[in-house]
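Posting this for the archive.
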Amino acid sequence: MNVSPRQLRMFLALSESLNFSKTAERLFMTQPALSKAIQDLETTLGLPLFERTTRSVRLTPGGARMATLARSIVGEFETGLQRMQSSAEREALQLSIACWPSLAYVVLPDVCAAMERRFRAPQVTVYDCANSACIQRLLDHQADFALASVAPSHPDLVYEELLRDRFVLLASGRWRKQVRPRMHLEELLALPLITLTDASTAMRYMSAAYLQRGIEYRPKMQVDQATTVAGLVKKDVGVAVLPYLGVVPILGMRGMQMCEIVDGPLRSVGIVTRRMGNPTSVALAAMEEVRAITQQMMARHAGWIIPPSPGTVRQGEKPRR
């Protein structure tokens, strides 16, 4: 049976007024159009709903019973629409971001605070995990976007570089006397280096930098978290090699000395999105906040955080004007 909620509402309005011209005016339609809609409904139901004379319109007994049923159906439909609208509003306020931990520490608190100011009670989920896990969360539709440090080559993803991050050396205790404010890659080989594991982009960037010089990069220790690296450095176990953004959360620890790696690699950091589909308004707003915050970071940490390469655009898209 092909009966629309709109037809039922017309039927109910006419059953209450019993006047075609007044009902048509109330529904902002012509009287012939209303008459046609009621005739189509009667044909579909196989039942006359109204008795019409030149002077009056009244419900048939079957029409009266159908009006009671139609009122229940329309009420249930409108209740269902209200539930759907409430659910859609809740869904529209959901925001999921995948981001590696040290970047989450310096960027996402400001992003989340901005979302609280702009939207009513947004529901934010942050997946702070390794770069590869961030990309997988995005591909699995578990995240609206990712903040990643390597431009993905996956055909379903788009990468927008935001900044480039210098690598630095972090020393403490007796090792502070063994380092200078500016160090070269080859000089690091004589030191007990501590870095992140092979799953990290930090390790991959440093390995590639040494490989270009025909040298195998073999640090003394590898751990998962930058905070663990900081603890080991604090206890004089060795010196850390990390991207600058990775040491920002631990620079406040007493006794730490940061040195520039003059010829070290630059780590690319950017926003990764899915090529297909449209982000929600909350996700779009969050990405705009990320762009604004990273611009501020480049101003505050000039020399350590570098702007994107000239002419860098989102992969697969034209430059934004």
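The chain is about 45% helix and 20% strand. The two ends are 52 Å apart (CA to CA).
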